Automatic annotation (TrEMBL):
Residues 4-229 form the ABC transporter domain. Pfam families: ABC_tran. This is ABC transporter ATP-binding protein. GO terms for molecular function: ATP binding; ATP hydrolysis activity. The keyword Translocase does not apply. Keywords: ATP-binding, Nucleotide-binding, Transport. It comes from Secundilactobacillus oryzae JCM 18671.
Length: 290
């Protein structure tokens, strides 16, 4: 399996730094969630990895070879994004054939089944499709293309709840049949929480978290109890946010808890990914150690 590595990737637009040294090794056959607030640099990163835009510095390598203008490596990657790369006059079935030609293969049987399930007319012209159906044909391409790395930038844009559900189920089915790496950039954290295995969170152009979902959740705690006890218990821990509920205090902790004895009045719960993401990327509640 091909190894894809990003090393110290930077991107500047004029004086503005969008990516500030991103180093990530994407593991084979793994479903990633790529999370970040608006403008964090997710799309920029995916466009650099797939050679659509150049990095200002750093490298992206597949099997230790730079991917820039490396057709062999680029054939192993497919980026589905809002950008409309195909001629608006092309019909959907022509796009499937064009993709097969570019990638040296395509699962036409699956594409035809999915088009039927999603209610997509494969004879319709690209330029005449609604936003939702444009996302749908691109998703079908992403699921049927024989590449090892599939990048999905806001894949469910414009899809109704039924179609989003169908997409996630189909993704899991095709992943079970033919494992490969998916990197899903999205703001719909709750929807992908149950399918992703690893998590990359970007904040202002840098990687804040690169870990398995399991490890990340094991490090994410909600500490709840009376103000003074919670403050004493969390002193020295990595508190990433807090809230007060009358006499009660909630502190969100990301990282190891120490060996202090937990008072009877204080409770520790787990935190879900969405809450963790909000607290980690909140501007006011930035990471701080008390
Ligand atoms: N061509 C460009 N010229 C100048 N600035 C750009 C260009 N493309 C992106 N940017 C800026 O780079 C930053 C990161 O944008 P990017 O689209 O990568 O973020 P994102 O994390 O995908 O955001 P969102 O979740 O809102 O889609 C933004 O501030 C954006 O305005």
């Amino acid at each position: 399996m091909n190894e894809l590595k990003l090393t110290e990737v930077k991107k500047h637009y004029g004086n503005k730094s969008v990516l500030d040294g991103v180093t990530v090794q994407l593991q084979p056959n793994t479903i990633y969630g790529l999370l970040g607030r608006n403008g964090a640099g997710k799309s920029t990163l995916l466009n650099i990895v797939t050679n659509r835009i150049p990095a200002t510095a750093g490298s992206v390598t597949m099997n230790d070879r730079d991917v820039t203008n490396n057709d062999e490596a680029l054939q192993q990657m497919y980026l589905m994004s809002e950008a409309n790369l195909y001629n608006p006059r092309l019909r959907v079935n022509e796009i499937f054939k064009e993709t097969a030609r570019m990638y040296g293969g395509f699962n036409f049987g699956l594409a035809s089944r999915l088009a039927h399930e999603f209610g997509l007319n494969v004879n319709a012209r690209n330029g005449k499709l609604s936003t939702g159906y444009r996302s749908i044909y691109k998703l079908i391409v992403a699921l049927c293309v024989p590449a090892d790395y599939i990048f999905l930038d806001e894949p469910t844009l414009g899809l109704d709840a039924n179609h989003r559900d169908l997409f996630y189920r189909t993704l899991m089915d095709t992943y079970a049949e033919r494992p490969r790496t998916f990197v899903i950039a999205t703001h719909l954290i709750e929807e992908i929480a149950h399918i992703i295995e690893r998590l990359v969170i970007i904040k202002t152009g840098s990687v804040l978290v690169d870990s398995s979902v399991e490890e990340t959740l094991a490090q994410s705690h909600v500490i709840l109890g009376p103000q003074a006890e919670v403050a004493a218990y969390t002193a020295g821990l990595n508190v990433i946010g807090e809230e007060s509920l009358g006499q009660l205090k909630v502190r969100y902790v990301y990282g190891a808890l120490d060996d202090k004895i937990l008072p009877d009045t204080v409770r520790i719960d787990g935190m879900d990914l969405q809450k963790l993401f909000i607290e980690l990327t909140n501007e006011e509640g930035d990471e701080h150690v008390i």
